[in-house]
Structure formats: structure tokens, C-alpha cells
Design a protein that fits this description.
Blueprint: H1 3-32, H2 36-59, H3 70-86, H4 91-113, H5 118-138, H6 140-143, E1 158-160, E2 163-165, H7 170-192, H8 195-212, H9 217-243, H10 253-266, H11 272-288, H12 295-309, H13 314-328, H14 337-344
Antiparallel strand pairs: 1-2
């Protein structure tokens, strides 16, 4: 194993370790300090973190920038909301069907989009998202039109062995959202660290070389598109449960910008980065709105300063500093042409 490969392996293990530590702290914190603010904002952070992580499966691992990712978020929300309101399907099955519906929509849209590259891909994803938005607005008998699925989403208590958990309890819903977020993170981590994930990175770096080696770059991009859509559908379904409905804003193009900002803030070269970005963006928004009605101006100024001075995501910045220190530590083998020239002398 080369030195750089060993570093990447350590970084991958460290990411999982820190992710599980953060999840453990997040699970225990409301039990120790039952803050209303935490129980209200915490689920938003977790849901938007999954949403941002789903986008990063395309942005960070294949280099595809989607401006229409809200379509799959909204698909998950409306699928769960309609099933829970108008059918006898249970919560677990509704969540699974919401993920499947979003992934299926991503498969259909992605079939056309992944044929294109760069800006054409991005604009086509936006165009399809606007089509989905129009369908949501016009299909009033099913979606409620511009009013959304009003009237609330009935959520029956969940039985866990001898216990019955009422998910309408803020603490219970917080813990459920945290559990599903951890499960989504671990599943995504397994995927990106697998052979499939390595091929996605190869497509990002040089798609022509991947084709030369016998793999289908288009097929790999489509698979990433579908996986990202499925994770986004989970986030949308959880948001529908959180707010008690599904609304056209979930599908509107401005919703697609939020995960992009979160990925840029937290970092696109790890899966924890988007979750950190969601915590920063959602947390700042919640705090700033308590003190001023000009929260958009204040938050925009903070984001501009962050972008101009840091230039990379928080975890990307930390990972690069950690790698630099690890590489410079005594006993590490020298790398690069200069080091080899010195060894030759």
C-alpha cells in the first residue's frame, strides 16, 4: 500500500468514526438538555443534511451539478404524504415507496440528462424539475395544487416490541430522523468506498479513460443520478413528516439551491461535509431570524465572506491540513520527483 493510499484509508475510517461519535452525541444531547430549539431545528438539520449528501453523490463523486435536485425531494414528500393521507399503507412501507418513487423519477429524468455534459446537463435538470413543479401545481385532486397537502399527515404510533412510540412527540421524531440519517450515511459510505464509488471518481476525473477500460461512463453517471434521487426522496419524505404535509415549495427550483450551498460550505470530498454544511446553514438561519428580519442580508454576507476567504468546504479544508501534517511527519516515505532525486543522490 502506498503512502497516499494509506492516508486515504485512514481518512475514510476517521470519517466513519467521527460520524458515529457525532451521532451518539446528537442522540444523547436532547436527553440531557431537552431544548425546544434543538428539537425543532435538529430534525431540519438532519433532513437537509441527507438532502445535501444525496446531491454530493453527483457533485462530489461524479462532477455533475444538478439544478433540479428538488424534484426528487418533492417526489419523496408527496409520495409519502399521499400514501399516508389517502391509503392504508403504513409508515415504514410509505418511506420505502417514497424512496423508490424518487429513484424511479431520477431514472427517467437521468436517462435524458446524463447524455449531456457540463452546463447543458445542469440546465436540463432544471428544465425537468420545472416540469415536475408544473405537474404538482396542476394535479390539484392528487397534490392539492398550490395549497399542497393540507390537513396534516396522520402518523400512527410505532410499536417497538413491548413499547409504543408516538412519533408526534418532538423527541421521538428527532430520534427517528437521527436514526434514518445515520443509516443513510452508512449506506452511502459503503457505496462510495466500494468499487462502484471508485469508478464514479474515475468518471469524474477522466470519463474517456473509463470508457477505454471497458466501463460505461454514461451508465455510471446514471446510477449515481438514481442513487442521489433515492436519498433525496428519503429526505423529502422525512420533511413531509416533520411539517405535516407536502407543498409546491419542496419542488421549486430555489429548493435545489439549498443543498448546493450546503455542499460548498461543508465540503464536497467527504460525505460528512454536506451534513456539516446543513448544520451551519440551517443553524445560522434559525439563530439569525430570531434577531433580525434582515436575515437574508446577514446570512448572505456571511456566506460571501466564507466563500471568498476559505474557498473550500470546512471538512475539505480540515482534511487537507490533516493530510499535509501527516505527510510531513517524520518517518513518512518521501513522495514526488524532488524527493526521489534527493534519494538518488
Amino acid at each position: 500500500m502506498t503512502h497516499s493510499t494509506a492516508l486515504r484509508s485512514i481518512v475514510r475510517r476517521t470519517e466513519v468514526t467521527w460520524g458515529l461519535v457525532a451521532a451518539a452525541v446528537a442522540a444523547v444531547l436532547p436527553l440531557i438538555y431537552p431544548s425546544t430549539f434543538l428539537l425543532n431545528v435538529g430534525p431540519q438539520i438532519l433532513v437537509m443534511g441527507v438532502f445535501a449528501m444525496s446531491l454530493n453523490l453527483m457533485l462530489g463523486y461524479t462532477g455533475m451539478v444538478s439544478f433540479g435536485h428538488a424534484a426528487y425531494f418533492g417526489m419523496g414528500a408527496y409520495t409519502l404524504g399521499i400514501l399516508m393521507q389517502k391509503t392504508a399503507v403504513g409508515l415504514a412501507a410509505s418511506l420505502v415507496l417514497a424512496v423508490a418513487g424518487a429513484a424511479l423519477l431520477a431514472l427517467v429524468i437521468g436517462f435524458f440528462c446524463v447524455r449531456l455534459g457540463t452546463i447543458y446537463f445542469s440546465m436540463l435538470t432544471l428544465a425537468f424539475a420545472q416540469i415536475v413543479y408544473t405537474v404538482v401545481i396542476r394535479a390539484t385532486p392528487l397534490t392539492g395544487g398550490d395549497q399542497g397537502l393540507i390537513g396534516g399527515i396522520p402518523v400512527p404510533p410505532v410499536r417497538l416490541g413491548p413499547w409504543t412510540v408516538a412519533l408526534r412527540s418532538p423527541l421521538a421524531f428527532y430520534e427517528l430522523t437521527l436514526s434514518l440519517t445515520v443509516a443513510a450515511f452508512l449506506l452511502a459510505k459503503v457505496l462510495v468506498d466500494s468499487r462502484w464509488g471508485l469508478l464514479l471518481r474515475a468518471v469524474r476525473d477522466n470519463g474517456d479513460r473509463v470508457e477505454f477500460l471497458g466501463a460505461s461512463a454514461r451508465g455510471l453517471r446514471l446510477s449515481a443520478f438514481v442513487a442521489a434521487g433515492g436519498f433525496a426522496g428519503l429526505a423529502g419524505a422525512l420533511m413531509a413528516l416533520y411539517v405535516g404535509g407536502a407543498y409546491p415549495d419542496f419542488v421549486y427550483w430555489t429548493k435545489s439551491a439549498e443543498p448546493i450551498f450546503m455542499v460548498l460550505i461543508g465540503g464536497m470530498h467527504t460525505l460528512l461535509g454536506p451534513l456539516v454544511g446543513a448544520a451551519v446553514l440551517v443553524g445560522l438561519t434559525a439563530v439569525i431570524t430570531q434577531y433580525t428580519s434582515l436575515w437574508g442580508l446577514v446570512l448572505g454576507a456571511i456566506l460571501v465572506a466564507f466563500t471568498l476567504f476559505l474557498k473550500v468546504g470546512l471538512l475539505d479544508f480540515g482534511a487537507e491540513r490533516w493530510r499535509s501534517r501527516a505527510a510531513a511527519a517524520p518517518g513518512n516515505p518521501p513522495v514526488g520527483g524532488v524527493a526521489r532525486a534527493r534519494e538518488a543522490k
